[in-house]
Amino acid sequence: MADTAAWNTYSHQNPGRRHVNASGATTWFNWTQYADHGPGAEILDLAPASVVLELGCGKGGNLAHVATLGHRAIGLDISPPQLAAAAERWGELPGLELHNAEAVAYLEETDEKLDAVFSVFGAAWFTAPEALLPAVRARLRPGGVFAFSHRPAIEGCYGCQASYINRSEDEDPLVVKRWDYEPEAWEALLAKHGFTSTAASLIAAPPGPRKMGTLLVEARA
Ligand SMILES: C[S@@+](CC[C@H](N)C(=O)[O-])C[C@H]1O[C@@H](n2cnc3c(N)ncnc32)[C@H](O)[C@@H]1O
Description:
Strand order of the largest sheet: 3-2-1-4-5-9-8
Distance between the termini: 26 Å
Number of domains: 1
Bound molecules: S-adenosylmethionine
Number of helices: 6
Shape: globular
């Protein structure tokens, strides 16, 4: 069960995206934890005027970029303060829609046919794949892309893991569950749920002291 209180706490600790990136753009797509790094929206392979869903859109930076490309950009998130920040900054963009919803519940209730589904350090990381993957697959048009990114698994720590969201010194941290697998395990899980062209790979960290890359998982319905 997704933990709204924990994500609300996280929301208050995390500022939104910068207003301009290194190349002077006001919207952009970032799959990684590093600024100005990695591939962009081309991973989604979108035809003009596609219908795109983001799972766990948070403050909406990537979703906004998809809307500015001329697509219908639907974002869902379980955290009201995350969505409020997204609405305040991006709510007027044509084609952008925000829903306060849990990912699997939304996918099972909607009758939208989606051209692509994506998630960046979002609900695809924090939802049991056995529940999420069939729900995504059922809503994607044949050939539609499902892509998500997050930190790679720590060697030996696979399956459901605990993520801690710190609070004040007098309070215990809040805990959310995430699901970590090696790239080959993600590919097998996706194939088991009927996805094709599955590919999971590591985007290397940019040059500098930090070494942890980003896992990018891609598949087609
Ligand atoms: C680490 S944040 C990332 C937000 C955003 N994708 C970004 O890149 O800034 C994770 C987000 O996923 C949302 N989330 C976690 N589990 C979810 C679920 N099961 N359904 C919907 N949203 C969820 C949280 O509320 C939070 O906004």
